[in-house]
What does this fold into?
Amino acid sequence: MNEKDQLSAFAREIIEFQRKNDLTDTEMALNSHVSVEHIHNIKAMREQPEASVVASLRDYMEHKPTGK
It folds into this structure.
C-alpha cells in the first residue's frame, strides 16, 4: 500500500470514529491533544502526520472514555 492510500485509510478511520461517536473535529482535538488543524489536514489528505500525532489519535480512538 502506498503512502497516499495509507493516509486516506487513516483519514477514513478518523471520520468513521467521529461519526460513530458523534464527535466534531474540535472535540476530537481537545480529547486527543492533537490540534484541530492537524485533524483537518489529515482528513483532507493535505498532511502526512508525524508518528507522534498518529499515536495520540490512535491511543484516543482505542481508549476513548464513555461520553465525549
Q: What stands out?
A: The chain has one domain: 3-63. Residues 3-63 form a domain with the 434 Repressor (Amino-terminal Domain) fold (CATH 1.10.260). The longest helix spans residues 3-21.
